[in-house]
Design goal:
Number of strands: 7
CATH topology: Rossmann fold
Number of domains: 1
CATH architecture: 3-Layer(aba) Sandwich
Strand order of the largest sheet: 4-3-2-1-5-6-7
Shape: globular
Radius of gyration: 16 Å
Order of helices and strands: EHEHEEHEHEHEH
Helix content: 25-40%
Largest sheet: 7 strands, parallel
Number of helices: 6
Strand content: 15-25%
CATH class: Alpha Beta
Structural class: alpha/beta
């Protein structure tokens, strides 16, 4: 697999979550910064978004925030990131998240994080996005979602091959290994998109 240069991290803006999620985010950010991997994220200054940005910056890494203009004050955009891209809307934001990245990493989050992850899975199923999608399943947080995806496969809403769309890992410090071990995917996946 080619060298990982740039990743997008989907994560939450909530401050009211268990410290274990902040600790995992801190560890993940340190690995990315140490390996000179540019991080793209939602641009927030609070919650896991803020932790991610603060740690990357503290470790002298590079981080790019992407946020729709209307959310600038709602999520209190991080003013210290290396670069900030303000988009017209949420759809454009999600498109920008995927531009030039070598992988997508999903941390625990709420409906916004779920929606970003599910859109990425859908695009990969259609062969429109072919990079690794890795899910950091801290303390089993994503177990119900993974079970639901497997249930969709078991009930023929998806194919068994679609299990190769995502990779689940539990230790934030093994993120690079999770990305590198992700099964290869190609644009020809459109041919097996339909069940």
């Amino acid at each position: 697999m080619q060298k990982i240069k740039k990743v997008c991290v989907y994560c939450a803006s909530s401050d009211k979550i268990h410290p274990k999620y902040f600790e995992a985010t801190d560890k993940l950010a340190k690995v990315l910064a140490k390996n000179n991997i540019t991080v793209v994220y939602g641009g927030g200054a609070r919650g896991l978004m803020g932790q991610l940005a603060d740690t990357v910056l503290r470790e002298r890494g590079r981080i790019i925030g992407i946020m729709p203009r209307f959310m600038r004050e709602v999520e209190f955009h991080h003013k210290d990131v290396n670069e900030f891209i303000f988009t017209a809307d949420m759809h454009e934001r999600k498109k920008q998240f995927m531009v030039g990245v070598d992988a997508l990493i999903t941390l625990p989050g709420g409906c916004g994080t779920f929606e970003e992850l599910m859109e990425a899975i859908t695009l990969k199923r259609l062969g429109l996005f072919v990079k690794p999608i890795v899910i950091l399943n801290i303390d089993g947080y994503y177990d119900p979602l993974i079970q639901m995806l497997e249930r969709a496969i078991d009930n023929n809403f998806m194919r068994s091959e679609h299990k190769n769309i995502w990779t689940v890992f539990e230790n934030p410090e093994s993120v690079l290994e999770a990305i590198q071990k992700s099964p290869p995917w190609s644009k020809s996946a459109i041919n097996i998109a339909q069940v």
